[in-house]
Hints:
The protein is built from nine helices and five strands; from the N terminus they run αββαβααββααααα. By secondary structure, it is α/β, with parallel strands linked by helices. A five-stranded mixed beta sheet has the order 3-2-1-4-5. Helix 2 crosses helix 6 and helix 3 crosses helix 4. The longest helix is centred in the last third of the chain and has 24 residues. The chain is globular, with a radius of gyration of 17 Å. The termini are far apart.
Amino acid sequence: MPGLLHERRCLPPVAGVDEAGRGPLAGPVVAAAVVLPAKGVPRGIDDSKKLPATERARLYARLRDCALIGVGIVEPAEIDTLNIYWATMKAMTLAVDELTQAIGGMPGHVLVDGNRLPRWGYAATAIVGGDAVSRSIAAASIVAKHTRDQIMIAAAEAHPHYGWQSNKGYGCPAHLRALREHGPSPLHRRSFAPVAQAVLPF
């Protein structure tokens, strides 16, 4: 389980930040910012990629009850305008901005998964592989991943051809076949090569 070593080195309250959805062909990029409670942290928090969906859902519900959380969402049209890197930076900024409202002020420090930081006024540290070593970042990864998964499951009802309820917008073979057959939906990222190629005339 990721520890709290990085959190203990920082001025509290310490927020962990992570994102979900940089790679998919469809749907938003979602970031979460989480401040864990001093006591009563749910057991089992880990990098969301290592957890089954049922465990992520359980931990998400527990975190909603005990932690302070902010979520930032950037939709596909804006991803196409900004590019995915800057859209991710914006989602992280939106998440921390929302978290400040829950805290009632700025976090003492923000720990961000990755090697780059958004352009913001928060004291922050980027940690490569942070979701494996920081419990706050791992918690944020769970919130971001679960939130995005639920968005894509709901979107699959309106756009059933693409199998988003299972692939969550990633470019698996079934999704690519549906994209070629039916063309892109309003939730596809048209700046991504497989989507752009699907709208080219044969």
